[in-house]
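Title: Comparing notes on inverse folding

I've been comparing how different people in this forum approach sequence design from structure. To keep things fair, I'm posting one structure and asking everyone to reply with a full sequence. Here's the target:
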């Protein structure tokens, strides 16, 4: 709810502060006193168009600040805290400020933090709806008109079903495009994958295989030298070399026997005998192992050639599939990298084959989704047509109560260019204010007073579902009689039960309905014209209403008439 509007150096206002209350707030004053300046200032604070021309003569900067009190809608909290990322507690008042310099520069603030004018306008549209001779009117926009109709209809389930169908159709349509793009090189890519996979599967390197092959290659390449070395090792250990050279086993045998003689004389030396016997057994085992190794070291040119070919095949594939800079890493254990590559290529081939199957099925699925979307759109259109007639009747009924009984109001529902996020309908509110005229879109209605009363009628019909908390009506009573103004006052008073209403009025019958009455007065100070809003107490209000009725504010008769009007309200 708008609690305070502070204005500095705007138009003829040097400094002024307007305080508002819940319910219906009436702003009155003589013609030319500057009532609409308040609305213009509020419009500017809410992100409306502004220029240096609005600055009071002689001032450098115009400033308008509006303060709103909680509670706030979730959309306001999300915009300020989540989307804009501003520091603000939803339990605190929310202040917005607009400054315009003499150079035409504009600065905007939300909760004391600098934002751009677009952000300010987005927030302003959630806080206040201005109706009258200004541009900041939410129901001028087709999207807002469609949303208002949908809110009045109460068919959220149908709208949700349509949106679900629309999202599914969009998903399938995008998927079809993706598959069509992938299909452009499907055959060549699949052939490439099949070739690469076949090549890798043919080699099929096992983990650690390359190291084993390299070791075997080294043995086969040096088989003769290895056999000779193994034979010499066996001879040194078991047979001896030369006529006068004893083998290691013979020497260990003699040493063991000598130690046995020592142990026979000194029991503490028995351990040396045991250790020598162990060495003798180890030497014998080692000698036989060397002999067996030498027997295996036979030249096998065919096997060597096979190993060289296998090793080169693995390394060639490793180089082929290595990413730039990975050759060294793959060289350490390339078979692992090749198996990983095989897994990746196989997965890609399987994905392509699945996509190919999906590609053959996508058109049927898309056609089914389109049928569901068309059905949901048609159901939604039917619901909207029923809601449109119901809402239009309610608006026309209220229009008749506010001296527009001959006005024609209708809600046109026409096919849109395609399936949008909210249906396949173009919803537009249309009005013909006078007999014989064709209906026109609301934004083309010339008369501000007629437009304001139409907006009032629409808002009255949407009262329970309209989420914007503050409604401002400027000159809503233009061109209407006293009896009609009384009816307008009744409509506004009822609307004020669910919204904060601010109305600029010339009619006492409307002002008398207000719970809070403000008079705008223009005076001259130090040779300059100044506009000041004044909140009226009970006595001052009687005087103001008396003037509005065309009476003498100083006369008792005028005050009595004003008092009767208040009692009737």
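Reply #1:
Here's my take.
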């Amino acid at each position: 709810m708008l609690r305070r509007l502070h204005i500095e150096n705007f138009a003829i206002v040097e400094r002024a502060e307007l305080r508002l209350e819940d319910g219906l707030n009436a702003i009155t004053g003589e013609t030319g006193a500057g009532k609409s300046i308040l609305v213009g200032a509020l419009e500017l604070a809410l992100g409306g168009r502004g220029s240096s021309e609005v600055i009071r003569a002689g001032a450098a900067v115009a400033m308008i600040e509006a303060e709103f009190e909680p509670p706030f809608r979730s959309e306001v909290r999300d915009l300020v805290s989540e989307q804009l990322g501003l520091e603000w507690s939803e339990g605190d008042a929310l202040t917005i400020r607009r400054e315009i310099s003499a150079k035409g520069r504009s600065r905007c603030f939300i909760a004391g933090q600098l934002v751009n004018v677009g952000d300010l306008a987005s927030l302003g549209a959630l806080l206040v709806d201005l109706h009258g001779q200004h541009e900041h009117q939410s129901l001028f926009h087709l999207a807002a008109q469609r949303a208002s109709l949908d809110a009045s209809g109460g068919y959220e389930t149908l709208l949700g079903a349509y949106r679900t169908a629309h999202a599914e159709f969009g998903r399938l349509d995008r998927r079809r495009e993706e598959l069509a793009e992938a299909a452009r090189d499907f055959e060549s890519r699949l052939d490439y994958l099949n070739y690469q996979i076949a090549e890798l599967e043919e080699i099929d390197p096992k983990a650690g295989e390359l190291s084993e092959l390299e070791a075997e290659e080294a043995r086969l390449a040096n088989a003769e030298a290895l056999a000779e070395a193994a034979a010499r090792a066996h001879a040194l250990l078991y047979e001896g070399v030369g006529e006068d050279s004893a083998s290691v086993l013979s020497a260990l045998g003699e040493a063991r026997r000598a130690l046995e003689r020592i142990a026979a004389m000194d029991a503490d030396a028995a351990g040396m005998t045991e250790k020598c016997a162990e060495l003798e057994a180890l030497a014998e085992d080692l000698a036989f192992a060397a002999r067996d190794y030498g027997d295996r070291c036979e030249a096998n040119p065919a096997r060597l050639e096979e190993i060289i070919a296998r090793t080169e095949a693995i390394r060639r594939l490793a180089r082929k599939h290595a990413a730039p800079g990975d050759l060294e890493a793959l060289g350490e254990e390339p078979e692992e990298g090749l198996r990983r590559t095989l897994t990746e290529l196989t997965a890609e081939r399987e994905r392509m084959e699945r996509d190919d199957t999906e590609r053959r099925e996508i058109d049927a699925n898309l056609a089914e989704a389109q049928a569901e979307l068309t059905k949901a759109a048609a159901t939604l259109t039917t619901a909207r047509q029923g809601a449109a007639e119901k809402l239009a009747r309610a608006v026309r009924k209220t229009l008749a109560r506010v001296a527009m009984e001959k006005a024609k109001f209708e809600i046109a529902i026409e096919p849109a260019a395609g399936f949008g996020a909210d249906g396949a309908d173009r919803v537009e509110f249309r009005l013909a204010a006078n007999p014989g005229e064709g209906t026109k879109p609301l934004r083309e209605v010339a008369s501000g007073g007629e437009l304001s009363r139409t907006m009032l009628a629409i808002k009255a019909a949407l009262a329970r579902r309209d989420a914007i908390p503050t409604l401002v009506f400027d000159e809503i009573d233009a061109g209407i009689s006293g009896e009609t103004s009384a009816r307008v006052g009744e409509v506004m008073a009822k609307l004020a039960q669910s919204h904060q209403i601010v109305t600029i009025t010339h009619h006492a019958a409307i002002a008398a309905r207000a719970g809070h009455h403000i008079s705008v007065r223009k005076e001259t100070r130090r040779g300059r014209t100044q506009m000041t809003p004044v909140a009226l107490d009970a006595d001052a209000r009687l005087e103001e209403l008396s003037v509005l009725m065309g009476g003498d504010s100083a006369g008792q008769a005028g005050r009595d008439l004003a008092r009767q009007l208040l009692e009737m309200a």
